[in-house]
Amino acid sequence: MASNLSMRIWMIFGLAFFLALQGTLGGIECEQLSHDTCSFAVSSGGKRCVLEKRVKRSGEEAYTCRTSEIEADKLKDHIETDQCIKACGLDRKSLGISSDSLLESRFTQKLCSPHCYQCCPNVVDLYFNLAAGEGVFLPNLCEVQGVNARRGMAELRSSGIVAPGPVNSVQFTATPPSPSIPVAFTIEPPSLPPN
């Protein structure tokens, strides 16, 4: 009985200590992060951290981490793992946040890979919102990556408005499979008018 009471007291003391320590340390503040952990981090307030570079009068480059106005969806106090940075084709020294990387097919392939898309929700949330700002639905962009990546990029570049191609120029001989299997198709030349 006495050991049970003693154990409860220690558990209560431990919980109180943990809560006090958490309250004094606070959460993640972007301005307190180093340039090695800033990019792709989320503050305790749910705002994304961005790395910025300034050039001092001496010509020396100085990096600072600051809190952006971009909010993460249901995520706080998060520093992205090195595994996600690598799997998603990201760089810890990325400056700012931009949708321009979605135009690069190599980056989009890594972002849409199962290792990134299914395991790194912070990164996917960020690029989902960036793509949406350009009028593109990220899952659709990932879907066309394997089947018709160039068309997906063209849609992204033009914010979703693409002129249709010739009606009968391409005939698929098989239904489009998953992105990892090549698609077989034939191109018919246009018919020439008789002389």
From TrEMBL:
Instruction: Report which superkingdom the organism of origin falls in.
Output: Eukaryota
- The residue range of the signal peptide is 1-26
Report if keyword Disulfide bond is assigned: no
Q: Whose protein is this, by species?
A: Cajanus cajan (Pigeon pea)
Coiled-coil parts of chain: none
Q: What is the lineage of its organism?
A: Eukaryota, Viridiplantae, Streptophyta, Embryophyta, Tracheophyta
Keyword terms, alphabetized: Signal
One Pfam family name from the record? PAR1
Listed name of the protein:
PAR1 protein
